[in-house]
Amino acid sequence: MASNNLIIGLEIGTSKICVVVGESRPDGTVKILGVGQTPSRGIRKGEIVDFETAMKCVHEAVVDAEQKSDVMIRSVYVAVAGSHLQSFNNRGCVMLPEDRDEIDEQDVEDVRISAREVSIPAQNAFLHSLIHHYHVDGQDGVLNPVGMLGHKLEADFHIIHGVRTRIQNTIRCVKELPLDVEDVVFGGLASAQVVLTQHQKDLGALVIDVGGGTTDYVLYSEGAVRQSGCVAIGGDHITNDISMGLRIPMARAEKLKIDEGSCILGNCLPGEMISLKDDSGFAGKEIERETLNTIIHLRLRETFELLKRRLDEEPFIGYLGGGIFITGGCSLLSGIDHLAEEIFELPAHVAHAQTASGVTSAVENPQFSTAIGLIKYAQAVQTDRPRRGIRGIFGKIFSGIR
Amino acid sequence: MIQLSKNYSLPERAPEFIPIKIVSVGGAGLNALDRIVLDGLERADVVAINTDVQSLASSVAAHKVQLGRTMTRGLGAGGDPELGYQAAVESADEIREALADARMIFICAGLGGGTGSGAAPYIAQLARDIGALVVAFATLPFSFEGKRRNAQAREALARFNDVANAVICFENDQMGDFVPPQAGIHQAFAVADSTISQSVRSIVNLIQRPGLIHIGFDDLLAALRNRNGRCLFGFGESDSDNRAHEALTQALKNPLMDRGRMLEEAARVLVQVAGGPGMTLSEVEILMQELGRHVSEQTQILFGAAVDARLGDRLAVTIISSLAADHDLIPQQTQPALSAASEKLPVWEQPQEILPRIEIEPEPTPMEVSEPAEMTPFEEPAPIETVPPPPVEPILSKSAPERTRYGEPEPVVSTPHKTPAKEEKPAAEKSVQAKQEVLQFEAVTRGRFEKSEPTIVEGEDLDVPTYLRKKIKVK
After folding, report:
1. A231 and A307 in contact (C-beta within 8 Å)?
2. Which member of A229, B65, B82, B377 has the lowest number of beta carbons within 10 Å of its beta carbon?
3. pLDDT less than 50: residues of chain A
4. What range defines the domain where residue B21 resides?
């Protein structure tokens, strides 16, 4: 098997660990060969809290994926999440030497490094530097300056960074298995690759990946990432709220959320009850549907409002032509798109991976957006076309550390 | 009324059925009747009465009577109760003929329109004249149908109350509350129709079904004794493993039941449990125990049980009760308290009576007012009662009872009368507030995130459930 174009995405999520084996085709499409997953343990809010247990779970998922796709997995792309991830926009600038006026690859690399010459906390490391566009001698909107003439090269970057050790924990967990880590990618960014088309990125779009432990968001405008971030609130919080509010066990609350939950208020009969069957260790109970929906609604509303406040700090949200795309496991909650529409005042859709072929049932679920997105991301990086947008050089940065 | 019912009380385990007729008057009544017939009705005849030939023709009822052949000429009464009444008078003989032989007559009418408001009370009168017992099922219009229509409906309802032995009143507005907000309007009307249908059918069954512990018409009248009252009605049926519980829950879910909350205030509650031969004593016990939680201790429960082979595995519960009209709720609810208070009443009035007469008196009252402000309101009234009354009492002990008899609740008088009641309520509210405080204490817990790194954004610990932080009470 031509292992060269095999790409494996590994998402160590709060609720599940998911391994997607994909095959990159020369025409730019991805074929999904198999999906392995296990419910995860030892993960909270997107980060490992129990190393041994998490490692076992990752191993199980990898084995599962190997069996299903009939492929030996050696190296993976890993998605990371966690509230420690932060981002900002910065402009880098380099002056070309007097004797040369043609911009080359090295200059582009230099300007990227210059953009990173800002103070981030000492323990933090850069995860991504995503180019918006270049400016050559004051000319705006240059997409690829290589080969152009100029003296002053500037570039706007969106930089995502996080706590070095916390990112390394995820890497170590995979390396212990042992598997190679090709690259580490911010989960929200990976999801966006699969949810959005290039056209939507150009129009401007907001991707919200509401996962189990975290909610990642990436805002695209004019084809480039303008804002991104990660809030450590997710489906787990909803489950926890339900469990505490209705006084039912966690497992019951999770099931109730998935089977009956909705975040639309006022759409059920007053006094409409949901009866929970009794079980060992749990006496049956009846709960009011409106109560359940209220709990879910309040949590999601708060989360979205928090995102909106963050995004409002910069003016991009007003220019989204593509609207809002919600993905991740929690996007399966009924009515979540309506709630987002109400809060952001923009059209919202629940989205999942579409641009892949193969095991389609696996693809058509927003739960796998991140893992499949990793493959799309990797494909974009590997083809090494000088496209703006995605460029991971995390491997380079971390090669010394590992 | 009760005496009458005694005359008609049914012989125990009547072998033959009582002739019952269900009469619908007007357009809304016809809709309800169709629903009743379509839902399946046994052991009762149906008669449709209307001025409008068109709607009469489309009715599924076997027996039809057209009102006012010459007066309205087959058209409706045009929302004019007077016309409806005249039409009914014109066709009185036909109506009598249609109602003949019935010992019990149920009249279904939608009040507010011409025929329903005008003719239905007259028909009820005719039915009484024949010597039948009359139970009226009346629907009041939605409030959006206009004040005029509502006034007509109220007037007709008052007439019904004078004539019929019992009136079960359905407020359409209330039905609207039990339809999802986004459901179509036809659903709201359908809910109203099916609620009427369900209650008519279950009352027919209640009376016709040979009972182990029989429920007679007297029991029914007793349960519905509150004039102008609000009818509480619930019917539930289940054949699951936990059928006793489920049937009761379903009965309490009925739009006319308000989830059993109102039952607590009812003085009498009629309950009939019917089931197939497989119905066990323990099931009935479970059911009655559960129901017991919804009623107060003073409530009189009129219990009936029936075994009906046709029910098979199903168990059916019918709950009927009535409340006094909304404003009379309080006295009924706090009867023991009121009897005690009634002695105090004149005492309360006395200082107030004096005020207008002797102008020097107002001085003490401001003091009285200021005192409660300083101290707890609970303790204050007592010393006031004891201190000022003695000198005044000899004079007023004669006049006070007279005044109360006149029943002139002066606005001034009513305020001190209300205060004891209000003082009770704050006590209740305080206890509720205390509960909320307990909730706030629990808010410190973060559930499964107890041991993980807190998510603190903008100074708030987002791991704590949102509804706790926003202090929105769920449940």
Report:
1. yes
2. B82
3. 1-3, 385-402
4. 17-208
Judge: A45–B468 Cβ closer than 8 Å, yes or no.
no
Domain termination residue (choose one: B208, B235, B261): B208
B170 contacts B178 by C-beta, under 8 angstroms: no
- pLDDT per residue over B203-229, tens digit each? 887 777 777 777 777 777 777 766 556
- Asked if the ipTM is above 0.85, the reply is no
Residues of A in contact with B249 (CB under 8 A): 273, 286
Distance separating alpha carbons of residues B390 and B408, to the nearest angstrom: 24
List the beta bridge partners of residue A228: A218
Number of domains chain B contains = 4
Residue in chain A closest to B182 (alpha carbons) equals A267
pTM of the model: 0.57
- Tell me: do B320 and B452 sit in the same domain: no
Q: What are phi and psi of A80, to 5 degrees?
A: -120, 155
CATH number at residue B71: 3.40.50.1440
Does residue B426 lie within any of the structural domains?
no
Predicted local distance difference test score (pLDDT) of residue B4: 53
Question: Which tokens sit at B277?
Answer: 């031969």
For A266: left if phi > 0, alpha if psi spans -120 to 50, otherwise beta; the answer is left
Residues B168 and B295 in one domain: no
| Interface list for A 288-327 with B (CB within 8 A) | 288, 291, 294-295, 298-299, 301-302, 306, 309
Q: What is the per-residue pLDDT for B338?
A: 36
What is the bridge-based pairing of β-strands A30-39 and A356-358?
A: parallel
Q: How far is A402 from chain B (nearest CA, A)?
A: 26
Instruction: Record the tokens describing residue A292, joined without a space.
Output: 């359940």
If residue B320 lies in a helix (H) or strand (E), which one and from where to where? strand B315-323
Q: How many interchain CB pairs under 8 A, A with B?
A: 88
Domain limits, chain A:
86-161
Q: How many whole angstroms separate alpha carbon B32 and alpha carbon B67? A: 19
Q: β-strands B268-275, B315-323: how paired?
A: antiparallel
pLDDT score recorded for residue B177: 66
B98 and B118 both lie in a single domain: yes
B377 and B390, same structural domain?
Answer: yes
The pair phi, psi for residue B447, each rounded to 5°, is 65, -130
Are B312 and B339 part of one and the same domain? no
* Residue showing tokens 């995502």: A160
Burial zone of B161 (CB within 10 Å; 0-12 exposed, 13-18 middle, 19+ buried) = middle
Tell me, yes or no, whether B78 and B191 share the same domain.
yes
Three-class secondary structure of residue A337 per DSSP: helix
| Residue A215 · residue A233 · CB < 8 Å | yes
Residue B7 lies in a domain: no
Residue B474 covered by a domain? no
Q: Do B292 and B381 have their domain in common?
A: no
Choosing from B208, B243, B273, the residue where a domain stops is: B208
Residues 431-450 of B with CB under 8 A from A: 445-449
Indicate if the pLDDT at residue B419 is higher than 50. Answer: no
Per-residue pLDDT, averaged over B73-77, amounts to 73
Residue B356 lies in a domain: yes
Candidates A14, A85, A230, A237, partner chain B, best to mutate (most B CBs within 10 A): A237
**pLDDT for residue B388:** 45
Question: Which of chain A's residues have a Cβ under 8 Å away from the Cβ of B256?
Answer: none
Assigned token pair, B117:
């408001």
By mean pLDDT, which of A279-293, B51-65, B226-240 is the weakest? Answer: B226-240
